[in-house]
Amino acid sequence: MTVASPIVVSPSAAEVDLVLERAAAGARLDASDAETLLGATGAQFERLLALASQIRDAGLAASGRPGVITYSRKVFVPLTTLCRDRCHYCVFVDTPGQLLKKHKPAYMSPEQVLAVVRQGQALGCKEVLLTLGDRPEERWPEARAWLDEHGFASTIEYVAHVARLVTAETGLLAHANPGVMSADELRLLRPVAPSMGMMLETTSRRLYEEPGQVHFGSPDKDPAVRLQVIEDAGRARVPFTTGILVGIGETVRDRADSLVAIREAHEGHQVDGQGHVQEVIVQNFRAKPRTAMQGAPDAELIEYVAAVAVARLVMGPRMRIQVPPNLSDPTEFDLLVRAGADDWGGVSPLTADHVNPERPWPHLSDLERMTAELGFALRERLTAQPEFVQAADTWIAPELRPAVAALADPATGLAADTVKDSGDTPVDGTRSAPPATDLLIPRRAHDVRRLAEAAAADPLALDDPEWTALLEATGDDLDVLTATADDVRRYTVGEAVTLVVNRNLTSSGLGTVFDLDDVAAIAADAWNLGATEICVQGMLPREADPAGYLDIARAVKRGAAGIHLHAYRPQDVQDLADRSGLGLDGALAALRDAGVDTVPGTGVKVLSERVRALVAPADLEIDRWVEGITAAHRAGFRSTSVLFYGHVETAPERIAHLRQLRAIQSATGGFTEFVPIPLPGPAGGVPLVPGRVPLDEHRAMVAVSRLLLSGSIPHVQIPWTRVGREASVTLLQSGGDDLGGTLLDGRVKPEAGIEFGQELPAADAAAMVARLFRPFRRRTTTYGQVSG
Question: Burial level of 449, CB count in 10 A (0-12/13-18/19+)?
Fold first, then answer.
């Protein structure tokens, strides 16, 4: 379906000026006023933003946190993706048939929930967002059967059980977002969830009642029903999150009515001048593939920003106005903050946005930096906003007050700093094995199911012999291992399979295979073919001027200024550092100035001097590789990481390698992905388990990589050039979530790439992923959203 843009009758300049003057004087705006301001343009639009900023700043100052924008560090738990509604823009929900094809359970089990939550806890998360479909048991017999089998009368009752369990087992706080709730259900959840939420989205009855509109056939999207939930939440004294969705076919008047309706519900249930709506989300529609609205345009930026500003004016200075940072380009953040936003909402360092899987979260360090560049400090809050935490006797159920207080800064009501030592290996690779009593899940020696479940809950809980047992799993045990790893993948990084459109260039060919003019032409050709990345690696000949590394980088950017340059292994960088006299830090700075954006973490087989001496003595020494990659991360470069397996290394050496990568990540945060790369036979491909077929070797390696690196290095890439397309599909079901790059040969000097002759067009990759009933998306080098 396509959604026609609502017909807008622009207000006159005089009308907008009049409402702006009234708003500046503190007048209470009605829906007509809000509708007028939503049509502001030009200089009046700028005045609208300035006024919204002024009101926001006054509210922050009155709250005791001037110049602060907040966020919640969360774990996103998709408790079930079954739903009785049929919204035309949603990719979150599945049918029972789709669940079967994905090998996905109807509901996450408590053990699966706790496994993800504990990983989030180790990363400092304090909120557990429980999101799910509305009342799936009323549409799907499979949901009803699961609930009956597990002893729950309803999905909401199961939500309450999980929320209670999460806080009891981990101390984290649940934010319940289960859709429409009755007054009794709100009361049921209040003692286990210090905040709850449900988007109003819109008051438009047309979108609900008219066939073909986005909410037609979705009983829980009746605006009257949703407004009643907001009212009931106020009566129950529940800190409540709600908001509007901009760009789903609603009119400008609908937006205005929706904001005013939220304000009226909020003000109708005040206690000591404080209403129960703790934040209003203004969310922009983003079209998603495989939905009825996939051809609809995204929300217009100016309309969206105007809605944020008008929300601020309608709701006033004390309300928190939230904008999801992953649904906007970072270049748009300035407008959103100028429009009066003061909260980024929940952002996860572990889990994907399962509702918007095509829109990855910004890295928290990047969000902090970008917020600072806009003149604000980023501060973490709890799932309940600070005002509600400080008035806990009114707004927080007695059962939850100790848990809330344990995570809160008593002076501000914001989140306390509770991040603990992760227990990861030091960068030098040393680590003592934990005693068996440290495990969260009891197990017997070499019981693969229990070992896998323990690893899913806490990757640091297993010792080397236990990880070895997993690496050597066969038969049914291997199936259990890969299924567990794939669940960890599903419930952390999500269902999407990604690919970057790129081209390789082997820098050692400079002067023989290509010259600098060719480099510029290769980059321009790749860019014109749709590539967003060019990967350059390989040592220059000893007789070549080491400045050639910098010359290649400059030539790439000369040929395609917008392309991402992923260039130079630690060995290459050390060569530049040594032979140029720049030193390591100087070489990295020079590469940055020349245009390098990220670096490959290749040039090492296994982080073991024994292995290096036997199979790759010309490779960089292990301590120098670690020094090089760590220095690159600390200089601001992100990188890949790899393990080449299947030669002379032992299972404990593979485990030690993964542990050391995790330790480097703990120290620097610079790895974007891990690539387990098998050596091809006959020079390699030696199985850990005699007689185990190559595919099972790869399945075990991918699964163990996912489990051991979970919560540290987020993405596990399948090296399709080594294992082939068919095996890649299987490995994507063993914990993998990325296919690397397309490796375009290009039309200019195609022989200049080391993997010349092997290409994976994006259309072919999408077809491979479609067989798994998982979404496919193109990504940037650092796993961001590709523009355009």
Answer: middle
Q: What is the pLDDT of residues 419-455, one digit of tens each?
A: 554 455 455 443 434 433 333 334 344 599 999 999 9
What is the CA angle 144-148-153, rounded to 5? 85
CA proximity to 507, closest of 469, 465, 470, 555: 555
Q: Quick one: which of 672, 688, 285 has its CA closest to 473?
A: 688
Contact 35, 19 (CB under 8 A): no
- Count other Cβ atoms within 10 Å, centred on residue 417: 8
Which residues are bridge partners to 130 per DSSP?
A: 77, 176
Residue 263 · residue 314 · CB < 8 Å:
yes
Q: Which residue has the tokens 């009643």?
A: 228
**Interatomic CA distance for residues 497 and 736, integer angstroms:** 8
User: Which is nearest to 659 in space by CA: 443, 456, 467?
Assistant: 467
| Number of Cα atoms under 13 Å in the Cβ half of residue 675 | 26
Cα distance between residue 395 and residue 375, in whole Å:
32
pLDDT in tens, 368-399: 999 999 999 999 999 999 999 999 999 999 99
Confirm if 8 and 39 have CB atoms less than 8 A apart: yes
CA proximity to 283, closest of 239, 236, 241 = 241
pLDDT at 417: 86
How far is Cα of residue 327 from the mean position of the Cα atoms in its chain? 11
How far is residue 405's CA from residue 388's CA, in Å, rounded to a whole number? 12
CA atoms within 13 A on the CB side of 136: 27
Whole-angstrom distance, CA of residue 600 vs CA of residue 604: 11
Q: How far apart are CA 82 and CA 76, in angstroms?
A: 16
Return the residue matching tokens 């998709």.
78
How many CB atoms sit inside 10 A of residue 448's CB? Answer: 22
Q: SS3 of 131, please?
A: strand
Nearest to 440 by CA among 80, 121, 105: 121
Residue type, 394: T
Tokens (6 digits) for 665: 């990540």
Cα separation, 478 vs 726, in Å, equals 19
Host H or E run for residue 195: strand 195-197
* Residue carrying the six token digits 């905040």: 195
- Alpha-carbon distance of 181 to 186, in angstroms, equals 6
Stretch 595-621: mean pLDDT: 96
Residue with tokens 């089990």: 109
Is the pTM here over 0.85, yes or no?
A: yes
Average pLDDT over residues 734-741: 98
Task: Using the predicted structure, report yes or no on whether residue 247 has a pLDDT greater than 70.
Answer: yes
Which is nearest to 132 in space by CA: 169, 90, 83, 180?
83
CA 269 to chain centroid: 35
- Of 113-117, 207-211, 701-705, 745-749, the one with minimum mean pLDDT is 745-749
Kindly report the backbone phi and psi dihedral angles of residue 176, in degrees, each rounded to the nearest multiple of 5, phi listed first: -85, 125
CA distance 522 to 514: 10
Phi-psi region of 581 (alpha: psi -120 to 50; beta: other; left: phi over 0): left
Query: Burial, 512: exposed, middle or buried (Cβ in 10 Å; 0-12, 13-18, 19+)?
Result: exposed
pLDDT exceeds cutoff 80 at 684: no
Residue 430: what residue type?
T
Helix (H, G, I), strand (E, B) or coil at 90: coil
| CB environment 142-167: b (16+ within 10 A), e (fewer) | bbbebbeeeebebbbebbbebbbbbb
What's the order of all strands across the beta sheet hosting 502-506? 502-506, 533-537, 564-567
Angle between helices 622-634 and 651-668 (to 10 degrees): 30
